[in-house]
Amino acid sequence: MKPIIECVPNISEGRDLKKINEISQIVTQVEGIKLLDVDPGKATNRTVITFVGHPDAVIEAAFLLIQKASELIDMRTHKGEHPRFGATDVCPLIPIAGITMEETAQYARKLGERVGRELGIPGYFYEYAATEEKRRNLASCRAGEYEGLPQKLTDAAWIPDFGPAAYNDAVAQTGAIAISAREFLVALNVNLNTTSERRANAIAFDIREAGRVKREGNPVTGKQVLDDNGEPIRIPGKLKAVKGIGWYIEEYGIAQVSYNLTNINITPMHIAFDETVKAADARGIRVTGSELVGLVPLKAMLDTADYYLTKQNRSLGISESEKIKIAVKSMGLDDLKPFDPSKSIIEYQMQSLQNKLIDKTLTAFADETASESMAPGGGSISALVGALGVSLGTMVANLSANKPGWDDKWEYYSEWAVKGQKLKEKLLFLVDEDTQAFNKIIEALRLPKASDTEKQIRMHALEQATQYATSIPFQVMENAFQSMEIMQEMAEKGLQNSLSDAGVGMLCAKTAVMGAYFNVRINAKDLKDRTFAADILDKAERIYKEALQKESMVTELIFGKL
Fold first, then answer.
1. How confident is residue 562, by pLDDT bands cut at 50, 70 and 90?
2. Enzyme catalytic residues
3. 356-368 pLDDT, tens per residue?
């Protein structure tokens, strides 16, 4: 898998759209960069920009953005609700695919060193790129904000990791920057039916990991309680990996609790939201909804949907799009403005970088298949038929889970529906992968063969591509055969009004197995490694025969009930 990282620079400008566009659009000048999102905030006077690409392209684009922001933003005149200390205030890099956190941290350090050397901007590495433990926390690096830079930059304990350790005219304009490698951070604002920033802060202190400072008597105005070292003692909040503050947003006329969820594997966003609801309710305040700033991983939305579906005793095996709707409504993500999954979910944004068969309309897919091109062919169609078949079985499972009077069985049918959804996704993936496998063979055939060495390289590449092209339809057979179990179970124990749907699903699964078996056999003929060929053909034949038996048995069962 090619390495992909995400970059989420936050610039200290949220009101001048001309400047925001000029700064954000500069990243599109770098080949291979996909600009995913530009999210300005008037009250915070801050814009969150998100783009992805290959690491080398990302740090080049990030450098150009930081350079442009330093030219257009003057920190001497900046005011906003959000903590900040530079024109490009923070610039985190996040590993998305095919790259480790440590490798991402190396890219962050490479970017910082160039920013300090070529732009003369002082900065700090934080999170996984930090040079010492006390610099891991962004709040520590940014303490004192822009106004405190003259003192901070000359403090021996806070000498910048890169750039000048002096406050000069250039730094007065650009401020400083914090660069990191970090986990995916979800920025979640929870909306309250109050205008009180103090009460919003109190809720934030209840929830965030850092909690609040312990005080004598009055929890707000009382004297701070200190430890033996003279440091304030803190009362921890409820949730780990959560940072939060309360603020009043004039744009909306409400107070919000603003969270940074720094590790959603520890505290997912639905838990942060629900705990906020409880804390607000205890203070006589109602949560009206929430908003996401920037992008969110698809898994976070699906986990949220599963959480609320489970609380409602509903099947978890519904479609991805339905789950997104459940997540949006459960957390009120459309409270202040419409929530557009295509713009707010990172995987959906990245889909535009690809040209998948499964993203085509039915008509376009059929036209593509019927064209003079050899792909998509029988392997892709077999995978598609298998996906449609298991979709029918999954539908029967979901209908059964919601059948009145079967409330005590919802988990049983939900488990079958979840299995069906997973198999459907695998088969849909194989629709495109079968075409990719065919393309690998074509690429191998196009390799030069003038010399003996070139012939050997070409022969090896062709063998590897043919093995792959044989293994993909075999995977179609495996997954389609596994899906038969779902249709059989639903025919026996599912909603009997949907017997015909289970039957059609079974017929589709058999067709997928047979069609893929044809492809395994025709591709295996060209394999030089006859041991590999014999093994996969033997396994494929067993699946084929068992599939025919299972389909015949279930068909007989269905006819007996009709």
1. confident
2. 82, 434
3. 888 889 999 999 9
